[in-house]
Structures are given as structure tokens and as C-alpha cells.
């Protein structure tokens, strides 16, 4: 079996909290995964268990030693998830905070030159680059993304990169368009002209769709937000190359070389990411005969991508006797209808209908989606399209075609 069957989907859904109902409003379809994915039941249980433990790491007692072992295992699990046999796993306050720290260290640790990013980036990386390029005396150059497709290509980076690029950032997947970038190709385009550049990737939106492979990317930093990949709020997770870790950065005096963490971290945060990796391994084990953990993670990522492609196609083209969004009058799909870069997300606007009203109407019919406005979060994508806002419908592999049908039926009713 290489696809998510109806039987497997039932098993998958049983592993997540609040799949079918909101604890505040009751039954609903959850299509707001880009804002924060559903949480694994195992993560909920692990969080409660570790919240009750009074001991800290670094003490001379058995409980403290056990906590240290749990943290060490979580680092190994995270490295496996990232496919990063070298470098350091970094836990911080949030994904945004880790992007700021990595960008700051890269800018301050390199001489002059250029910080290269793109107009598609989330403000987490774009704001960090704007601030720290100025502080470090570098020029901040932005590669233009393609408005029609919602992507920034390796070719666009290649046309903009110069030998004096010291730091570069890449957005793996856009939380507005839902389109994924070809990170290995973009990194190769940068390295071809500026081989010593420190390259940092924002993988926050991409992580829940699987398929992170540091070994294939040739980058120096990669950051995710675990609450968007089935864990919980309260921490960020990243990977930093040995080269990036060796640069001067905030650390306690006398701390081990290359150490990133500041203060005592929550052991439960580390442990919950082990739960996430264990889930990916379990899912891959249902899809392949492979016994090697990384092979199972890769099988899970492939199946997740395929299942979400089926769901987004149904949402755009229709399912059963229900027309898709592409067939509904006045609906415009951000990034186009037929876009192979799409990852589990469809954003759209309806002529003459404010998106905030559509989101509220869908909510009244039990469909949880989100509005993106042309503000500091999404204006870089929506303003060039002349759109004040859009409706974002974000899916995940635990969603079903029946839920897509419920959404399309609700849209038919709202649009009349």
C-alpha cells in the first residue's frame, strides 16, 4: 500500500485531538491547518505528563538523568526527521524567534555584502533580514516572485545572486499561496555564484506536508514551528549547520561551544517532537515494508503529499455532483487552478464579496477557514494582485474528501 486508504484514514484521524469537533463550538470541519495543525493525542498526553515533573536537567539524580536522555533522544529524532546527520538541533521560543536568531548570527558573523531574500517570504524571515542587514551594514535585496503562480523560482534567484551575497533566505512553502519552492535548486543557484553564503530556510508552512531533506538541500539553517506539525505551541525547532553554529551568537559564558539554548528548556517540548517523529514512522510503516525509520518517514511524506493533492484537486475541480471552486461564478484562485507547486492549500477571492464575510458564513455552516488580508503578513502577495483579502482553505492528510464535499456544498449555498 502506497496511498492513504479509507481504512487507514480512519486510523489516522483516531490519533488526533478534536478532528471533528471544536471544544468551544461543537462539530466542524477543520480547514485552518496552516494556522496550526491538529494535535496528536500522544502530544497531549506527553505534555500533561511532563508538566507534572518537578526536576530539571543537569542535576545529579536519576530523574534529571532521565530527562537528559529524553532530550538526547528528541534531538536524534529531530535530526532523523530533517535527514540531518551533521549539525545541531536547536530548540527555541518559536519558529519566528529562531529565524531571527539565525539571521542575526549570519549577518553579524559575515563581512559586508548582500542579504538576499524574496518578495514571497513571510515576515518572520523578511523582517529579520531587514533589521539585521541594516545593523550589519549589508544591502537587503529581494528577488521578485511570480504573481501569477505564487512561487519564486531558482531561475529568479540565479538572475539576482551576486558574488557578494553573504546571507540568503528561502521560503520553502508560502502560507498565503500554498505553493512550495524548489529549495535544492534555489540553494544550488545561490552556491553557484556565492558558494560561501549562509543559507537559511523558513520551513514552517512546509513541515506538516512532510519531505524535509537537509542532506539534499545544501543549506545552513532550517526552521519549523512544531505546533504546525502536530505538536503544540510554546517552542520552535530548527537545525543549524556546524558552520552557522560556529559563528558568535548569544550564549552563556563557559557554555559548550556551539550551544544555542538559553536557560532551562521544557523537556516536555523535546518529548512531544519525539511523538511527532514516531507518528511519521508509524504512518510510513503502514505504507511500506521498509523497516529503516528514515525510509518510513519518506514513505509517509510521499503519501501525505499525494493525499493532499487529491483533496485540493477535488476542492478546485469538484467531487461527486458538486462543482469545484474553479467552476463557481466570481471565484478567483490565488496562484492559478492548475499549479503543480500547490501543497495542501487553496486561497481564493470572490468578486464583490469581502473575504471576512465568506469566512464568517462558512463558519456558521461548520467549516473552519481563515481570512488573509493585504496587511504586513500577506500584503506582499495580495497587494500586487489588487486583492484586499482572500479566503485561505488549508488542508492536511487527516482531512477527507467528504469534508471537501461539505465545504463545496457550503460554498454553493453561500454563493447562491
Give an overview in words:
By secondary structure, this protein is an alpha/beta fold. It has 2 domains: 6-39 and 293-415, Alpha-Beta Complex (Aspartate Aminotransferase, domain 1); 45-278, Aspartate Aminotransferase, domain 2 (3-Layer(aba) Sandwich). 40% of the residues lie in helices and 16% in strands. It has 14 helices and 17 strands. It has helices at 6-14, 41-51, 62-82, 95-108, 123-135, 154-160, 183-193, 214-217, 242-245, 267-285, 293-317, 355-364, 379-382, 401-415, and strands spanning 21-22, 26-27, 29-30, 88-92, 114-118, 139-143, 165-171, 198-202, 221-224, 236-240, 318-319, 322-323, 331-333, 345-350, 367-368, 370-373, 389-394. It has a 7-stranded mixed beta sheet, sandwiched between helices. Strands 13-14-17-16 form a 4-stranded antiparallel beta sheet, with helices on one face. It has a two-stranded antiparallel sheet with strand order 1-2. A hairpin with a 2-residue loop joins β11 and β12. The model has no long low-confidence stretch (mean pLDDT 94).
Task: Summarize, please.
Keywords: Lyase, Pyridoxal phosphate. The protein has 416 residues and is an alpha/beta fold.
Amino acid at each position: 500500500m502506497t496511498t492513504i486508504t479509507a481504512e487507514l484514514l480512519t486510523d489516522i484521524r483516531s490519533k488526533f485531538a478534536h478532528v471533528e469537533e471544536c471544544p468551544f463550538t461543537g462539530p466542524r470541519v477543520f480547514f485552518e491547518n496552516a494556522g496550526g495543525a491538529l494535535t496528536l493525542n500522544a502530544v497531549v498526553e506527553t505534555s500533561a505528563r511532563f508538566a507534572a515533573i518537578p526536576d530539571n536537567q543537569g542535576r545529579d539524580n536519576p530523574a534529571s538523568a532521565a530527562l537528559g536522555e529524553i532530550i538526547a533522544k528528541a534531538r536524534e529524532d529531530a535530526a532523523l526527521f530533517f535527514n540531518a546527520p551533521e549539525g545541531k538541533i536547536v530548540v527555541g521560543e518559536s519558529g519566528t524567534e529562531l529565524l531571527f536568531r539565525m539571521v542575526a548570527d549570519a549577518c553579524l558573523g559575515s563581512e559586508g555584502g548582500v542579504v538576499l531574500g524574496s518578495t514571497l517570504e513571510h515576515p518572520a524571515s523578511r523582517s529579520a533580514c531587514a533589521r539585521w542587514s541594516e545593523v550589519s551594514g549589508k544591502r537587503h535585496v529581494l528577488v521578485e516572485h511570480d504573481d501569477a503562480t505564487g512561487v519564486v523560482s531558482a531561475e529568479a534567484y540565479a538572475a539576482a545572486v551576486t558574488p557578494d551575497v553573504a546571507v540568503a533566505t528561502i521560503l520553502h512553502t508560502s502560507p498565503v499561496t500554498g505553493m512550495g519552492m524548489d529549495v535544492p535548486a534555489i540553494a544550488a543557484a545561490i552556491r553557484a555564484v556565492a558558494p560561501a553564503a549562509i543559507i537559511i530556510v523558513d520551513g514552517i508552512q512546509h513541515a506538516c506536508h512532510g519531505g524535509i531533506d537537509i542532506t539534499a538541500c545544501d543549506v545552513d539553517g532550517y526552521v519549523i514551528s512544531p505546533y504546525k506539525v502536530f505538536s503544540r505551541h510554546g517552542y520552535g525547532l530548527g537545525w543549524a549547520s556546524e558552520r552557522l553554529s560556529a559563528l558568535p551568537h548569544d550564549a552563556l559564558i563557559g557554555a559548550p561551544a556551539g550551544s544555542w539554548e538559553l536557560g532551562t528548556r521544557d523537556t516536555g517540548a523535546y518529548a512531544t517532537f519525539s511523538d511527532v517523529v514516531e507518528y511519521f514512522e508509524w504512518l510510513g510503516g503502514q505504507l511500506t515494508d521498509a523497516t529503516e525509520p528514515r525510509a518510513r518517514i519518506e514513505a509517509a511524506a510521499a503519501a501525505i503529499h499525494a493525499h493532499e493533492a487529491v483533496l485540493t484537486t477535488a476542492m478546485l475541480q469538484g467531487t461527486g455532483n458538486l462543482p469545484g471552486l474553479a467552476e463557481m461564478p466570481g471565484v478567483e484562485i490565488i496562484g492559478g487552478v492548475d499549479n503543480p507547486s500547490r501543497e495542501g492549500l487553496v486561497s481564493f477571492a470572490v468578486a464583490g464579496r469581502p473575504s471576512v464575510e465568506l469566512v464568517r458564513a462558512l463558519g456558521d455552516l461548520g467549516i473552519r477557514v481563515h481570512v488573509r488580508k493585504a496587511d504586513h503578513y500577506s500584503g506582499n502577495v495580495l497587494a500586487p494582485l489588487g486583492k484586499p483579502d482572500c479566503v485561505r482553505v488549508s488542508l492536511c492528510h487527516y482531512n477527507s474528501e467528504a469534508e471537501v464535499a461539505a465545504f463545496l456544498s457550503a460554498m454553493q449555498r453561500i454563493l447562491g
